Amino acid sequence: MDVPLWLAALVVGWLGIKLTRPPIWLVVLLLLGGYLIAGSFLGPVVGSLIN
Predict the structure, then answer these.
(1) What does the H/E/C string look like for 18-30?
(2) Dmax of the chain from CA atoms?
(3) 15-24: per-residue pLDDT in tens?
(4) DSSP letter string, the chain
(5) Backbone angles phi, psi at 33, to 5 degrees
């Protein structure tokens, strides 16, 4: 079964928010921070650390 990455990330994120109930500002901060880091010069560095 092939599941698109965006769908898997959406389901995991939804379950994480429903089960752990983090504050909404923390969710927004993590999403915005990840987006900004991915577009900056740190993106390849973080990508190589993850892999």
Answers:
(1) HHHCCCHHHHHHH
(2) 35
(3) 999 999 999 9
(4) ----HHHHHHHHHHHHHHHH---HHHHHHHHHHHHHHHHSTTHHHHHHHH-
(5) -65, -45
Closest listed residue to residue 28, CA positions, set 43, 13, 7 = 13
CA dist., res. 14 & res. 31, Å (int): 13
Residue 32 to residue 27: CA distance in whole angstroms: 9
> Which two tokens mark 21?
């109930």
pLDDT band for position 49 (cuts 50, 70, 90):
confident
- 26/40 Cα distance (integer angstroms): 21
